[in-house]
Amino acid sequence: MAPEYNMMEMMICVASRYLEDGKTVAVGTGAPCAAAMLSQKTQSPNLIILFEAGGISPMLPQMPISVGDSRTFFRAVMAAGMTEMMTTCCRGQVDYAFLGGAQIDKYGNINSTVVGDYYKPKVRFPGSGGANDFASFCWRTMIMTVHSKSRFVEKCEFVTSPGFLTGAGAREAAGLPEGGPYKIVTDLAVMGFDEKTRAMMIESLHPGVELDKVKAETGFELVVPKQVGRTAPPTEKELRILREEVDPLKLVIGRA
Amino acid sequence: MKVLDQGVNPIFMDPDPDKAREFFRKKPRAMVDKRMTEKEVVEKLIPDGCYLGIGGFGANRIPTAVVHEILRARRKNLGFLGHTSTHDFELLCAGKCFNRLDAAYIVGLEARGLSPNARRYMESGEVKVTEWTNYSLAARLRAAAEGVSFGIVRSMLGTDTFKMSGAKVIECPFTGKKFAAVPALWPDVAVIHVHEADMYGNAVFKGISIADMELARAAKHLIITAERLVTNFTIRSNPTATSIPFYLVDAVVEVPYGSYPGNMPYLYFSDEEHLAAWMKAEKDPKEFEKFLDHYIYSVSCFEEYLERCGGLKKLKELQKLETLVEK
């Protein structure tokens, strides 16, 4: 019988599989950090985890609360600073970065700054932090988020961090280096981007989810290829390591 | 150099490097006793209207005692460097201390959520804001530390973060590629919490440096708060460890447990219960007033705040929670 799991566990397991061995990944707290830790303990033992405040390749004893707390440089190879970490991204040595936000649009742009008028916002969010930097410089941006119509919008009210901006060629025209969003992992599906138009494209549906459901929860028209795959569910091994070693206190997986 | 595009929001501080050099030319270099209390440093070095930067990372290695004193002194109209700020930002919003802000990360407390009161303050329209990113603000400080008028990054290009910044897109004279020029930023004053300092200001911090190396060298005035004072001989016995030399520093304040309720690497972890109590109290403005009165305004000094939060018993618990321990 297939093991039972919640949607947060599903998202973390799926995201962990995209992180290749021997590559570098910049993570924040929460689900992205769990995905990177899980990947290290399953398929990618030589995955290098980086934190923007300066922790380089720590042996994480448990989930950090802050990207600058003590855990982020526990038995690290270096306790550096933000400049060290960000210049590593700038010169092209960081492969993956994880982002989140209040809104994401069909070109993978992200809003984590404001909803409503900028000068008198309805909701003020934290802003870029290091997200815009990561989205500009890392080779592949990963996004983990809940799938809903209010979050997946035709156009972000404010583009905090660049995806493919207005589509094919726009990043290059703006002066950004090659890169951009790679995979979006939600509680319903995995999305990628059409190589020609750079518009968001459905890649695989999670077990038990139908295409209509994903379309209904997306505020714009997704590109649908001829063949839509099925996401492989979390394996028993992934779930065991996630629950026993990565997040035993259920700080993240308990949130589903 | 051709300017191709520019952000619409204000640059709060003059990026002229020669004016900065004129200031630093006159800054005293004498190695003298700079010990002060947190009350004295706010009185002497953090006047109303000045532009303030705070070291550390929001709730990690932050100079809480001085920030509390800024609130108690009812400082207003400050400019603030909203760079990786979390609990420090929450505090300054509680006192409505600033009215102009360079924002990279504000309002949030990372995995803990968003501060309801900081949101109310930022949504009121009372604060002039200019957007940046963590790296571009670090680059502004680095340019200041280097004595040049701007730094060059590829951050922000093509986004609304750029539009709402004070940066300019320029064309590289060598490659023709586009870059964002970001103006040097010399804060009037910065406060950085460290593990050890001598009375002259030679300071040692351990663990990640975040943007403190840049901030210490960009700020016109620098206040160091230290977990403990050490002798000058201790500093000279291991000069490799020194992060900040004395001639950058204007004042030294000894504050044991000074990063509380934040994390201090190698010493104590953050007090998550107390940080959660802040967020909870902030939901109701009336309740929050009482909370602030209890923890800040009716408190005479930082030691008394520590007592109200559980004192030595609590601090010992936080020492046990800290994962990094020195051999």
CATH topology of chain A: Glutaconate Coenzyme A-transferase
Total beta strand runs of chain A: 14
Order of SSEs of chain A:
HEHEEEHEEEEEHEHEEEHEH
CATH hierarchy: architecture of chain A: 3-Layer(aba) Sandwich
Mean pLDDT of chain A: 96
**Strand order across the biggest sheet of chain A?**
2-1-5-10-11-12-13-14
Distance between the termini of chain A: 22 Å
CATH superfamily of chain B: Glutaconate Coenzyme A-transferase
> Oligomeric state of the chains?
heterodimer
The CATH class of chain B is identified as Alpha Beta
Can you say what the CATH homologous superfamily of chain A is?
Glutaconate Coenzyme A-transferase
The helix content of chain B is 25-40%
Helix percentage range of chain A: 10-25%
How many domains in all of chain B?
1
The Cα radius of gyration of chain B reads 20 Å
Summarize the largest interface: chains and residue counts: A-B, 62 and 63 residues
- Percent of residues in beta strands of chain A: 15-25%
Look at the structure and give the mean pLDDT of chain B: 97
Label the overall shape of chain B: globular
Topology at a glance:
The complex is a heterodimer of chains A (256) and B (327).
Chain A (H helix, E strand, L loop, with lengths): L6 H11 L6 E3 L4 H11 L6 E3 L4 E2 L21 E2 L2 H9 L5 E4 L3 E2 L5 E2 L2 E2 L7 E2 L6 H7 L2 E5 L25 H5 L6 E5 L3 E5 L6 E6 L5 H6 L12 E2 L5 H11 L10
Parallel strand pairs in A: 1-2, 1-5, 5-10, 10-11, 13-14
Antiparallel strand pairs in A: 3-4, 6-7, 8-9, 11-12, 12-13
Helix pairs in contact in A: 1-2, 2-7
Chain B lengths: L2 E4 L10 H10 L11 H8 L5 E4 L9 H9 L5 E5 L4 H8 L3 E6 L12 H8 L4 E4 L2 H13 L3 E4 L6 H4 L4 E4 L6 E6 L5 E9 L5 E2 L7 H7 L2 E9 L2 H6 L13 E4 L17 H11 L2 H13 L4 H7 L2 H11 L6
Parallel strand pairs in B: 2-3, 2-9, 3-4, 4-5, 9-11, 11-12
Antiparallel strand pairs in B: 1-7, 6-8, 7-8, 9-10
